[in-house]
Amino acid sequence: MHLIKLIFRNALRHKLRTGLTVVGLVVAILSFGLLQTVVDAWYAGAEGAAPNRLITRNAVSLIVPLPLHYREKIRSVDGVKAVAAANWFAGVYQDPKNFFPQFAVGPTYFSIYPEYRIPEAQFRAFVRDRTGAIVGRKLAETHGFRVGDAVPLKGTIYPGTWTFVVRGIYDGADAKTDTSQFFFHWDYLNETARARMPTLANKIGIFVVQIADADRAAEISEEIDTLFKNSPAETLTETEKAFQIGFVKQTEALLIAVRIVSFLVIFIILAVMANTMAMTARERRGEYATLKALGFGGGFLASLIFGESLLIAAIGAVIGVVFTFPVADWFASQMGTLFPVFEVSRGTVVLQAACALAVGATAALFPARRAVRVRIVDGLRAIG
């Protein structure tokens, strides 16, 4: 008990120095948590992928479409439960900076994605309206979309202005579900394309394949690709997670840089913390010698220094972690739909706490070593 009291009193002896150190720790821990959350957000699509979903695309490139008639052949493969078509639309809403994912999807798409929770009445209205659209909750909140609103999109791949009517707003099954997407009828897209641009009709960007047994994913993927081997449009089938990771790898260098910066922030605050503890130990050299003369051992002195350093680090960590959540929410709101899922994970919080404690322990290591080795005569001479 006396040791704990001494640790608290020592930490508060230089209030300004301690306060500035805590502020530095808070900023470092907060920055570290935010940067780690950015990296996690980049991988959110892969982490939210279902093991029983496959993606079939053109083996040459994702931008090269597949023929519509592939759908029935894929559906005939043993182990396949359902197949849905999806085309990337790439329309512009008001301004190019208002980017959000837009897909023309087939009728079975939403049954393959049960994590998209759509009210039954709204879904029926969507099915009845050939120009109807389903939008995610986050997208609706970002742009103020409401059920019944007309949303004009200027086509890039498919020229012209396309006007859709919001018939439903879907929520996610959990916080990791992407609710920033915009869906409309593939049949409407195809009918219009057939009339305006026949070369784009009856073409599919990707097929989403639901399988009965996730353990057979590799086997079924190979069977699907074998069906179209040596055809004019060969396919590449992979799990949804592998498909999503393929996008992440395109920016892997950037993600590595973000991770490096996050740990660099921790290294910088370690240097600041180490300097604080070194100054503290140097100022108290005479006190440590006096304690030794009174019979207190090196272990007691080391406990004082480590305790003070860990206490300061813990205070900074707690405040930093607490502030990470509101700052992350604010950051996500400013980013709009750039990060569909932006959530501070439990793993990030644990990592923040671990880094703070590591900084506290490391910063106290050399000052404690010097205090333990100080000679009584030398320490008392410093007092005089």
Helices and strands in order, then pairings?
Layout: H1 2-11, H2 15-42, H3 44-47, E1 53-58, E2 66-67, H4 70-75, E3 80-88, E4 102-105, H5 109-112, E5 116-117, H6 120-128, E6 132-136, H7 137-143, E7 150-154, E8 161-172, E9 182-185, H8 186-196, E10 203-204, E11 206-211, H9 217-227, E12 235-239, H10 240-249, H11 252-283, H12 285-293, H13 298-335, H14 346-373, H15 376-383
Parallel strand pairs: 4-9, 6-8
Antiparallel strand pairs: 1-11, 1-12, 2-10, 3-4, 3-11, 5-8, 6-9, 7-8
Distance between the termini: 31 Å
- Helix-strand pattern, N to C? HHHEEHEEHEHEHEEEHEEHEHHHHHH
Total discrete domains: 2
**Biggest β-sheet: count, sense, barrel?**
10 strands, mixed
% residues in beta strands: 15-25%
Average pLDDT confidence is 87
The tally of helices reads: 15
Low-confidence stretches: none
Number of strands: 12
In which range does the helix fraction lie? 55-70%
- What structural class do you assign from the helix and strand content? alpha+beta
